[in-house]
Amino acid sequence: MSDLTQFVNDLKTKGCAIVRDVLPKEYIPRARRELMAAIEAESKLPYNNQKDFAMVMLCSLYGGTMLELFNIKKLNDHFNAAMGEGCTVYAYTSSSMPPNATNYSARIHVDCPRVIPGFITNMGATIALDDFTEENGATWFLPGSQERVDAPSEEEFYSKGQRFIAPAGSVWFFNARVWHAGGQNKTQQWRHALTINMGRPWMKQRLDIPRAMAQMDLSQQPECVLQKLGFLAQMPANYDEYYAAPEKRKYRQKAE
User: Fold this and answer.
1) Dist CA 60 CA 46 (whole Å)
2) What is the mean pLDDT of each run of 10 residues along the chain (256 residues)?
3) 123 closest CA partner among 79, 163, 164
4) Per-residue pLDDT at 248
């Protein structure tokens, strides 16, 4: 079987898969620096609170590597293999653990409220910008729990669970219904990651990303970046947009 065939099979059976070397080596330190700057900027916002400390709510607003991420072929190939080429971002945040602390992800939880047996509505990706280790809070997950409605007990979860332990540049892809939890960072250094929740193109985004980014110059961005952020899945706002030539329409996704 090809790597992508095995990947899709793992998602169907285990609900998740760890893929190494997804990010180019030169991308990682740049993304880490830009994420740290974004965390600092968001810490000054009036909405920031202790619960969401160190979480960037919409990473794409910061441009640079945060947009470049969706031009990384290996990342897109895995999303598309599982969800179809038209899949778009539902949410795009960060998951950084401060030194000697944990974050909002520490509870045992899922990232999608609905269960449709045999069908993935949302797919998560935890994208490591640092090595994920037991010491710095590597994510816990319960394989095969994607169709389970009730949360497992802590005893079951931590006795049967596994961890996303992998080097920087790796990605833990998962059915958003898999029960998981962040660990505890017991080191003196930050542990950084980007997180994506990818949905079907006909689903509403958590934030209206195209509208949120309306003031940004995106003229040089490749279409694959705009597509994943939802710019090709916008509803027409008036008759002119509805009757526009196909290449100028706001909704011009491929049929899935």
Assistant:
1) 19
2) 88 97 98 97 82 87 98 97 96 95 91 93 98 97 97 97 98 98 96 97 94 96 96 92 88 75
3) 79
4) 85
Report how far residue 222's alpha carbon sits from residue 204's, in angstroms, rounded to the nearest whole number.
Answer: 23
Residue 250: count of CB within 10 angstroms of its CB: 15
- Asked if 51 and 104 count as a contact pair (C-beta separation under 8 A), the reply is yes
Domains of the chain, start order: 3-248 (2.60.120.620)
Which positions ≥6 away from 182 have C-beta within 8 Å? 95, 97, 102, 103, 104, 105, 106, 137, 139, 140
Would you state the structure tokens that stand for residue 241, as one six-digit string?
Answer: 């947009």
Phi-psi region of 144 (alpha: psi -120 to 50; beta: other; left: phi over 0): left
